[in-house]
Design goal:
This protein is an alpha/beta fold and 390 residues long. It has a domain of 206 residues: Rossmann fold, CATH 3.40.50.1100. Helices cover 38% and strands 16% of the residues. The strands form three sheets. Strands 4-5-13-10-11-12 form a six-stranded mixed beta sheet, sandwiched between helices. A four-stranded parallel beta sheet has the order 8-7-6-9, sandwiched between helices. Helix 3 runs parallel beside helix 4, helix 4 runs parallel beside helix 5 and helix 12 crosses helix 13. The longest helix is centred in the middle third of the chain and has 16 residues. The chain is globular and about 55 Å long. The model has no long low-confidence stretch (mean pLDDT 97).
């Protein structure tokens, strides 16, 4: 294993990876895993990847978990990068692609983070795991905890889509519905976790979910022959995927796998819950909590993200931006893309297609640029959204 330590993303304090860790013990900000990348470069030339399993664990040298330990896996990763030719041409674009994360286990990108988080939590001795979830993270934790033989305690807003709640219960999790938002669910876990013996695997409140999510960046680079796109549009709630990809790009440059050029990163949020958009437009380094957060795209209903400062830094450094989309437009574009490309998008993914149209009209993305849109989950989990619209 090439993991060396954990380091705080804010104050830089080192932490020991060999024990269960949540936030930095000094400043209570997220921790990142660090690796001996010089040793990885010697051990893993990128050409060696082609013969490996079609799974995110093909990148094991830059993932946590001691050698010889079997990961808790359901076959996650290796999702397709699909050309959106018909839809792209309908709006004048020649090079639009969909990274379709709905083809992961539990039908969302959350499987990536949970395979690494649950694998490390089990290895380090956790017995009971807890997470606040607007839907897909709960389903992923339930599945991976069951696979690991661990207890899962999932706290969800009472109006979470029924498919997500049922999924968690039918894979053995203890589900508690809360009258409130995901932030209220997180507060309840914080209040109870010590007395109940839970390890909190909330977004960026432990260091390994982001490690699974960073494989989005590794896969995208490999599937693109190590040439990153011009623009990435990413639906942003807690922002772990956005943050993880940027971490992956930095690691791959150090490994000599890619050059210095980076995509312009765009955070896409719902108009009814857009803390990152507001903060970016105001030139702020952190985002205040978004009041009265409402959106049918449940994965985007995160009024306050602990990784806000990391996201805003990435958007600025990449010369990208942030854009908010109305719920009605997400639902409309879901059908538009589905009819053109045969992919049933989650509303969060559809928001990114709508965002591309707006960015084009604003002159921020050119029609000949290579654009990758992330569809983070399957529309099948959001049937209530489409029943209302039909």
């Amino acid at each position: 294993m090439f993991l060396t330590n954990l380091r705080c993303t804010s104050c830089g304090l080192f932490h020991d990876w060999k024990r269960l860790q949540n936030l930095c013990t000094a400043c209570h900000k997220p921790l990142f895993a660090e690796y001996d990348l010089a040793a990885v470069e010697r051990a893993l030339p990128r050409e060696k990847l082609s013969g490996r399993e079609k799974s995110l664990w093909r990148y094991r040298e830059v993932l946590p978990l001691p050698d010889g330990v079997e990961p808790v896996s359901l076959g996650e990763g290796g999702t397709p990068l699909l050309r959106a030719k018909r839809w792209g041409e309908s709006i004048g674009f020649s090079n639009v692609w969909i990274k379709d994360e709905s083809q992961n286990p539990t039908q969302s990108f959350k499987a990536r983070g949970m395979t690494t988080a649950v694998s490390m939590a089990k290895e380090l001795g956790a017995k009971k795991l807890a997470v606040p979830s607007a839907g897909n993270a709960g389903g992923a934790l339930a599945a991976y905890a069951a696979r690991a033989g661990l207890e899962a305690h999932i706290f969800m807003p009472a109006d979470t889509p029924a498919a997500n709640v049922i999924e968690c219960r039918e894979t053995g999790a203890h589900v508690t519905l809360i009258d409130g938002l995901i932030t209220d669910c997180g507060a309840e876990i914080a209040r109870r976790k010590e007395a109940d013996g839970w390890f909190d695997v909330s977004t960026l409140k432990e260091p390994y979910r982001v490690e699974g999510k960073k494989t989005l960046g590794y896969e995208l680079a490999e599937q693109s022959d190590w040439q990153l796109p011009d623009v990435i549009l990413y639906p942003t709630g807690g922002g772990t995927g956005l943050i993880g990809m940027w971490k992956a790009f930095e690691e791959m440059e150090t490994l000599g796998w890619i050059g210095k050029r980076r995509p312009r990163m765009y955070s896409v949020q719902a108009a009814g819950c857009a803390p990152i958009v507001r903060a970016f437009e105001a030139g702020e380094e952190t985002a205040v909590e978004f009041p009265n957060a409402q959106t049918r795209a449940s994965g985007l209903r995160v009024p306050k993200a602990i990784g806000d400062f990391l996201m805003l830094s990435i958007l600025g450094d990449s010369h990208g931006g942030a854009i908010a989309i109305e719920d009605e437009e997400m639902v409309r574009v879901t059908r538009e893309v589905g009819a053109a490309e045969g992919v049933f998008l989650a509303p969060e993914g559809a928001a990114c297609f709508a965002a591309l149209k707006q960015l084009y009209s604003l002159g921020k993305v050119a029609a000949d640029e290579r654009v990758v849109i992330f569809n983070t989950g399957s529309g099948i989990k959001y049937l209530e959204c489409f029943e209302e619209a039909s």
